[in-house]
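Quality-control log, excerpt.
Job 1 of 2 completed; input and output follow.
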Amino acid sequence: MFGAIPLLIVPFVLYNLGLLGLFGGGDDPWTTELFSFRMMSGGTFSMTLGDVMVLIGLVFLFIEISKSVRTTNASIMDHLLSTLVFIAFLVEFLLVKGAAHSVFFTLTIIALFDVLAGFSVSMRSASRDINLN
């Protein structure tokens, strides 16, 4: 049952918790620098909270695409719920002022890729299951 829950709901919830001020105050919590260090090249590598959110989204996208290769009844529910998560991302992006951010837009596109990849893999595997006599 838990296999049908789309994991991209986690970055969605985390982003909304950040909008509520859980990850620090200020206008834009996503520009908060978490760490930085000097590279051997002389440049400085820094990681912001927004960068971490995108990385979390990409990790969950990988897991979701790995889950989409299953051909069980739960996979149909997973695709449906992934579509609902994408719709939630899209509606929030269009209607919530705090979601008008490049980090949230990137997470929305990641959710779209999850939906498209899930349906593409399902259609491809379904076409292999058809037997013509």
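Job 2 of 2 completed; input and output follow.
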Amino acid sequence: MEENYEFSDDSYTALGAAGVAWQDAVFVLRQSRPVVRRHIGAVLNVAGRDRQGRWLAVALIELDSHRDDQYTVAGARYLDDAEIASIERMLKG
């Protein structure tokens, strides 16, 4: 099943406050490769490169524990240099 990502008014507000274009969040979720995914409980974090090549982490919350793969975007932020270095080491193996 393909994951579905929803954006609410709160999603757009949070992205705007973080200086992240919603198009970049969608790009990370749908097209960026490679990505680093972390799923803990109802929270999914996806980090990947945005349309300009910057590392962006998108935070999502599962809408309903009975409906797998349905998420709402809660926010996003650009990663700092230490986080980027850590991901790059991890991807190199």
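Post-run check on job 2. The mean pLDDT is 94.
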